[in-house]
Amino acid sequence: MAINGPIRLTGFSGALDTDSLIAKLMQAERLPLNKVQKQKQFAMWQREDYQAMNTALLSFRNAANSLRFQSNFEKTIATSSNTSVLDITSSGTTAGSATVEVTSLAASATLISGKIASDSAPVNQTGTVKINDVKISFDAQSTVSSIIKDINSKTAQTGVKANFDNSSGAVYLTTTASGKDSKIEITNGDGEPASNLDTFKDILKLSSLSANGADAVYKVNNVELTSSSNNISVNGVQVTLKSAGTATIGTSTDRSGIVDDIKKFVEQYNSLIDLFSSASTTRRNRDYEPLTNEEKEAMTESQIAQWEKRARQGTMYRDSILTGALTSLRTSLNTPLDVPAGQVQLLANIGITVRSDYKENGKLVIDENKLREAVNTNFEEVKNLFTMSSKDEAAPGKTNVGIADRVYNIVNKQMDAIKKKIGTGSLETMDESIIGKQLRTLNDQESNWKSKLLDIENRYYKKFAAMEQALQKMNSQSSWLGSQLGS
């Protein structure tokens, strides 16, 4: 790496390769700077690897979070006995049934024109009308198409949208909202002659200049109700009314999904164990240090990639955050719940056990048949194992906090520790985190060493310049003496 500085003029004796000599001398002088830059690169690798650990913790926390609440264990499935009358859009959370009798559907206010020969021919008329008190103007050059465009540009104000149906040649004016309060009201423009309204009516071939919407009318278990929309809620179940008639909403509880959630929880835990165990037990290879720019220039991209793969190993060797997380999680998953004897207290009671091979680092294995049997026969106890939360003091060696909350709280604590370690910014952010402060110190050291090396390099050039000038003077004197003796 060259130290940038002023242009230097060396002597002209030609006896010394000044640049080459100084470059070799500076290689030794740069060693402290190289050390700082290597430390800086390693710190940035550490920060990047911590970010990866944090991402893994977040995934595991999400898996635990889905098991923290009782409502997630029992999911309601709603069905309609007649989907032509009503359709289920969302099952809700309350199990139950209801009979729905639909008398009429909610409708938007609508005006439909007679057949219009062309929507692109000039109307050859001038005037202004109001649609729901918003002005719509037309002139001789206007067309049905341009009038429609003008109406639609003001839909947000009028609540009315226009459309030309090419197949029938009809214009549809429809309110964007449905219900009895929705309306279309076309009135004369300010100061316009009475005939102006008839002109507009004739342009769009309208038989009427006003219309109102209608509410849906229906009964739920013989109780009459109305709604401005056909999308309604029946005891927490979201329903779309589709036609007059009668349909029954039936609901049932689905517990099968909880097995998948527990399996996902175990999979995420095992992935975290693999990642943290590997990261915290991999030693740093001191034979492979981060490369300087000069070292990279002498290598191919493939060689650089292979070297850096080895050089960045061990960034988290024996890291207290990772080892602490592993210890806390293992303890939390093996602490029995404080419930009466004979009830589900541990994961082992529902078919989830620690693998016997010590090389697996405490990963879990699932007996899926036993898990499904526990869910089907002891559902409340399985739910309690994950979601229990009591303020009462637990018996010694036990806990009254469900597994999901235990894990969730541990993961939050470890994520906070990582945040304190690396901050929340980019890799090179100089924040108040531990690594942020470390990078700030290394940056200062790097800047100081670059300044020192520039001074050292300048001194070398001055010394060699003086040496070359002395050699030049000696050569000049020698030539003079030789010429005198030769004479």
How do the helices and strands line up, and which of them pair or pack?
Layout (H helix, E strand, L loop, with lengths): L17 H12 L1 H35 L9 E6 L5 E5 L7 E7 L3 E5 L14 E5 L2 E5 L5 H10 L1 H4 L1 E6 L4 E9 L4 E6 L5 H10 L6 E3 L3 E5 L2 E5 L3 E4 L2 E5 L3 E10 L1 H26 L11 H5 L3 H11 L8 H14 L18 E3 L9 E3 L1 H10 L1 H9 L15 H20 L11 H53 L1
How would you describe this structure to a colleague?
By secondary structure, this protein is of the alpha+beta class. Helix 2 packs antiparallel against helix 12. It starts with 17 loop residues before the first helix and ends with a helix. The protein has helices at 18-29, 31-65, 144-153, 155-158, 194-203, 256-281, 293-297, 301-311, 320-333, 368-377, 379-387, 403-422, 434-486; strands spanning 75-80, 86-90, 98-104, 108-112, 127-131, 134-138, 160-165, 170-178, 183-188, 210-212, 216-220, 223-227, 231-234, 237-241, 245-254, 352-354, 364-366. Strand 5 (127-131) and strand 6 (134-138) form a beta hairpin. It contains 13 helices and 17 strands. The strands form five sheets. A five-stranded antiparallel β-sheet has the order 1-15-3-11-12, with no helix packed on it. Strands 6-5-9-10 form a four-stranded antiparallel β-sheet, with helices on one face. The model has no long low-confidence stretch (mean pLDDT 88).
